[in-house]
Design a protein that fits this description.
Blueprint: H1 5-20, H2 38-41, H3 43-54, H4 56-67, H5 77-87, E1 93-96, E2 102-106, E3 113-119, E4 133-135, E5 138-140, H6 148-163, E6 171-177, H7 187-196, E7 200-206, E8 213-218, E9 220-229, E10 233-234, H8 244-255, E11 266-275, E12 281-282, E13 285-294, H9 297-324, E14 336-345, E15 348-349, H10 355-367, E16 372-376, H11 381-385, E17 389-393, E18 398-400, E19 408-410, H12 414-429
Parallel strand pairs: 3-6, 3-7, 7-17, 8-16
Antiparallel strand pairs: 1-2, 2-6, 4-5, 5-19, 8-15, 9-13, 9-14, 10-12, 11-13, 18-19
Helix pairs in contact: 3-6, 3-12, 4-6, 6-12, 8-9, 10-12
The chain binds zinc ion (ZN).
Zinc ion binds at residues 119, 146-147, 180, 207-208.
Length: 437
Amino acid sequence: MFSLEPVKLFLLCGMLAAVAAPSLSTTPMLHRGAAPDETFRDLRTGKALEWLTKNASWATDEQVRITEIPAPPFHEGQRAAHLRRLLSCCSLSVRVDELGNVIAERRGEVRDVVMLTAHLDTVFPAGTNIRVRRESGRLYAPGISDNGTGLATLAAVARALNEGKLKTRMTVVFAADVGEEGEGNLRGMRKLVESYGSRLKYVIALDGSSTDHVTNAALASRRVEVTITGPGGHSWSDFGTPNPIHALSRGLARFVKVRVPDEPRTTFNVGEIEGGTSVNSIPYRASIKVDLRSASQPEIDRLEATLRESIEAGVAEEMTAARERGMANHNGVKLETQFRVLGIRPGGELPEDSPLLAALREADRFLENRSRPERSSTDANIPLSLGMQAISIGGGGHAAGAHSLGEWYDPAGRELGLQRVLLTLLGVAGLEPLRSK
Ligand SMILES: [Zn+2]
């Protein structure tokens, strides 16, 4: 998926610049083909970029330390404490909010906020072996890239701003947030967006490693659990009693025939099914978990409505069968259906003329990086769904196997990602003009 070309180019440019510029303090390691942007060309920016290049291995060492601190869903505290220490540098005021988000503020000229975030949690349960194994340049461990890279990048960029003595126009907030994965349901980001309110102008969520994309559209998803309960009974003597598994099957047979559009892409998946206690008992309970996704919010709503109608029709059909078998409507014999929404990730999209997207593209041009827009489910879903400016990007390097035990990370060329994050951040935060001496 990742194109190697830009990385090679970048490294080459870096080397050329280093050769051509012996005095790095006055000629920072900038890259050819740079956009004529004053912020990017500012000497202070140059110092920060140079610091990132020189300290890429610091970021990698820190990434290993972070990855080896467990952060299963809803148990991010230990890792949060580490991030709190890491961010307690560089004249940042750090606090932890009541949900466990670590928040570090860097005052700007104005109160408006650009927020750089990285989620703390992993999908791996407590007890998973998360020791990092190094093998021929690669680092292997569950969570090493998702979101070890994001968190290490967050810490590195915070330091680089300090090293460059950069004074930004907007206030920069660094946040290591909880609850991005699965049933965490983006609770950390929801809280951050709520607490900063109208001050929050831009959100840049660091997730994973790859620099070949920018997530500028949020994939909407909804997860629903459907549970049907009934009286249960003996398979022989109570035959005809409404059966929750039969009812669910009747409903599902209807639902899975639903037509979904290719455009906007819309998908559904019945991912879990359970119920019953033994082969010769009429079950008293059956349930399913269903994942609904779409590039369009109304399609999700439509799909969920179809699911409900299908299940209700299935239950009605099962009740009709029970009546025909003479077993329903005696002593309140009936089925109950319960729908429970397990998680909602709202959708949204960044407009083409977004200043944040423009800043990212300028950074890409400056660094000669190529990236394509992508729709995905990330922390950026929350601000995007509220019509706010947000993107999600990788922190640099290469990785594969996210959410699997075989996940790996290769830090080669990670400085490109680090610099891309810094420049995008500065592109929207803006620099305070240098006061003449
Ligand atoms: Zn992630």
